Amino acid sequence: MTKLNKPRKLVSIAIALGMVFTSLAIMPIAAEETIMNYSDISLSGGFQAGNFEEVWDITKSDLVLTFTVDLNGMVDDSGAHAWSEFGVRTVGYGNFNPTWEVEGAGVWLATDYDWSANTFDPDPLGIPTLDLDDKLILQKAGGCGEGDYNLPSIPPNPLANHAVWFDRDGVDQWQALNWGAIDNVTYNTGGTYDVIITLHSTSDTSGEAYMTINGRPQGFYVPNWHSGPADLMPAGMTFTGDMKQMQAFYGLYGDGAVHTVSFENIEIEGTLYVPSINEAKEYIGDNISHQGIVNGLIAKLNAAAKQFEKGEENTANNILMAFINEVEAQKGKKIPPDIADKLIRWAEAWIEYPELAI
Q: How would you classify residue 15: left for phi > 0, otherwise alpha for psi between -120 and 50, otherwise beta?
């Protein structure tokens, strides 16, 4: 996805408000947390995948991914099948099944559907039935299924679940009385689902994930389905990866037909990763081609770092303000706008949180 210039996170220094961006918007919600809203993503194939540029640090705050997935473009003809994914993975991994059968790079929504040909066809006229259409699960390794859920404990029967399988059309009057059968939530979904994935870190390399579909937490019955709430609910899973270096990604893989999937109303709330000044210097050298600008910016960062090391935060902040002014002056000229926005956001964070600078 090509993104337009985006505004940056706001901190204590004065920045004008009220700007509207059609591709991406950003606003502050707390001292370190940020909400970012992205334009809709539509994938088609075959295979198509991508990721957003922003890097998130889940150790600083929970990360919440909110979006709607429209699966009406999935084809259920004989010999055709497709899967889609949306979630987070450690920087540097791929954008579909970041790992396969072994965890270690993040966690994501994986969608599937019943393998019966034409499973999406409407129920026979006048005879609605609770059938299996769409399946939505958390996944921390490609090829894995419901058995990977392990919060609050491993389900003894992963097939006895709630808010995992959904019916696109109606049910009869008796099925509608079953616990968990909710109109426009678990049935009559029309193939469109509102998803919220909440991620919490338990260390720098481990975390916990929970997901709601159409407002319903997922769950599992013990030992088998019975009328009433699921015994293990809300159900989630542990996952691993670099919790300080996570990017949101999306993907589609299918065969036997041209499939489509849309991710809409995408909002991500959390804390953006902020590098140290030394790491930022490397980024500047790698991403700005004008050597004079590179030398000037790095000199300012070196000077600011020395002041931080001496405990002279006011002096360091003044140097960083000069750094911001130089980047602003060269934005769209000798510094690409997206790189300029990132450098300014980092400098603002160092001013606000000096411990991040060195």
A: beta
Q: How confident is the model at residue 267 (pLDDT cuts 50, 70, 90)?
A: very high
Measure the CA–CA gap between 190 and 170, rounded to whole angstroms.
Answer: 10
Q: Which residues pair with 220 in a beta bridge?
A: 161, 232
Inter-CA distances, 355 with 34, 254, 305, Å: 19, 46, 11
Torsion over CA: 91, 97, 99, 103 (sign): positive
pLDDT digits (tens, 9 = 90+) for 296-351: 999 999 999 999 999 999 999 999 999 999 999 999 999 999 899 989 989 998 99
- Cα distance between residue 219 and residue 202, in whole Å: 22
Task: Evaluate whether 224 touches 204 at the Cβ level (below 8 Å).
Answer: no
Cα(333)–Cα(309) distance, rounded to whole angstroms? 33
DSSP 10: P
Provide the whole-model pTM: 0.82
Cis peptide before 156 (omega within 30 of 0): no
Q: How far is CA 345 from CA 2, 100, 265, 285, 286, in A?
A: 20, 35, 24, 17, 18
- Cis preceding-peptide flag for 275 (omega within 30 of 0): no
Q: Which SS3 state, helix, strand or coil, does residue 296 take?
A: helix
